[in-house]
Amino acid sequence: MEAYFMARKVILYISVSLDGYIADQYGSVSQLVGKSEEYSGDYGYEEFISGTDTILMGMNTYRQITEELSPDTWPYPTLKSYVFTHKEMDDQRGIAFIQRRPEKFLAELKAQSGKHIWVCGGSNLANQLIAAGMIDEFHLHIMPVVLGGGIPLFDRAHPNLRLCIENVKETNGVIDITYSCS
Known about the structure:
Layout: E1 10-17, E2 21-23, H1 45-50, E3 52-58, H2 59-69, E4 80-84, E5 95-98, H3 102-111, E6 116-121, H4 123-131, E7 137-143, E8 151-152, E9 163-171, E10 174-181
Parallel strand pairs: 1-6, 1-7, 3-4, 3-6, 4-5
Antiparallel strand pairs: 2-8, 7-10, 9-10
């Protein structure tokens, strides 16, 4: 009997303001929150991460994580972590710094066996992969806030990008929506 093989998906899993920003004008994500500050859930993060074994991010996202959000502990110790940068950097435990074109590197990763691949951020990396047609699924948390400016999720036009809604739910004022590419 032949084993069922499930292809790895490349998933852009990210929070975004109602007006389309993934961070404010200072690069902070602190205002991307739900309606109630007392909410203690995770908006489906644990379920998402259980199907993922690889995380991709740009250097700005890496810096934000290591300098602001989690300066003392790498928050993704169980994931293979890849950071795209133009600078030569020494790999760290569980983190590889990549100086290659993201779409070529990702094509090689996707051909390997494993769980899904999470594109964590930022906007530049996400838009390069969107333009190359490399994102299989958009999993967005639309936060109930209007930032009025900052770092946009879509920093360039993607006129041929067509999406199909796969799932929508609301928790604490946050719209959790999953789109697949058609």
